Amino acid sequence: MTGPEQTLKALALVCSLKPSPASSSSELIAEHVFATLRDQGVDCESIRAVDFAIAPGVEDDMGDGDQWPGIRTKVLDADILLISTPVWLGHHSSVTQRVLERLDAELSNTDDADRPVLVGKVAIVSVVGNEDGAHKVIADLFQALNDVGYSIPAQGSTYWNGEAMQSTDYKDLDAVPEAVASATSAAARNAVHLARRLKAAQYPEYS
Q1: What is the DSSP annotation of 108-140?
Q2: Bridge partners of 161?
Q3: Contact 170, 25 (CB under 8 A)
Q4: What is the per-residue pLDDT across 20-39, written as a single tens digit (0 to 9) for each?
Q5: Of 42, 31, 36, 40, nearest to 9 (Cα)?
Q6: Which backbone phi and psi does 157 adopt, to 5 degrees?
C-alpha cells in the first residue's frame, strides 16, 4: 500500500520484571493491544526488555555488552511504540525507567529538518497491577515519551488494576472486563489513526 494507508509497524517494549519464558500480565495486555493493531493491518513485534542487557545511561550505545543498540534499531523502525509495564510500589517498573532513560538519547538524534527522529512517531501505554497507581504511571510515561518526541493519541492508554493487597493478576482473569477491552481497542485504533496521519503529513521543520 502507498500513501496514508501504507503498512505501519508497531513495537511493544514489555517491561515486566520477569524474564522469559515466565508468564507476564504486562506481555498479555500488550498482546491484547496488538490484536486490534493487527486488525488494522499493523505489523507487530514484542520485546521483553528484561531479557536483554540494557546498560544504565542516556547514550544510544553504552559500550561493550550493551544490547540496547539492537533494540534501538527496532524502536527507530517502528511507527508506533507501546510501553507495557507493571505497577510496583505505586510506580512503573525499574525496567521501564531504564528504557525511558535510553530513549532520552534520541533528543540529540535529528533528521534533515533538525527534528528529533522520534517526532512523527506515536506512543501508547498499557499498565497492569494489583495495586493503585495506573493513572500516575500513565501520566509519567506520557510526559517522558512526549518529551523525547512521541505523539500521544487521544485515549492512548489502557490499564487494569486489581483489588489492592490481593494476589490476582491480569493474566489470572477468566475474561477481560469490558471497560478494559474497550480502552485497549480505542488506544490501538487511535494510535493507528494518528500514525497514518503523521506518515502523510510530518511536523514542520525545526530549522
Answers
A1: G-B-TTS-BTTTT-EEEEEEEESSS-HHHHHHH
A2: 129
A3: yes
A4: 999 999 999 999 999 999 99
A5: 42
A6: -145, 160
Length of the chain: 207
Instruction: Report how far residue 96's alpha carbon sits from residue 92's, in angstroms, rounded to the nearest whole number.
Output: 6
Element of type H or E holding 81: strand 80-88
Q: Which of 183, 187, 197 is nearest to 152 (CA)?
A: 187
What are the pLDDT digits (tens) for 69-124?
999 999 999 999 999 999 999 999 999 999 999 999 999 999 999 999 999 999 99
Which secondary-structure segment (H or E) carries 186? Answer: helix 178-200
Q: What CATH number is given for 3-200 in this structure? A: 3.40.50.360
C-alpha cell at 94: 525499574
CA atoms of 18 and 25, how far apart (whole Å):
10
The predicted model scores a pTM of: 0.95
Report domain extents, the chain.
3-200
pLDDT tens sequence across 122-142:
999 999 998 889 999 999 999
The set of residues, in sequence order, having a beta carbon less than 8 Å from that of 158 and lying 6+ positions away, is 29, 32, 33, 125, 126, 127, 180, 183, 184, 186, 187
Q: What share of the chain is helix, strand, coil (3-state, %, to 5)?
A: 40, 20, 40
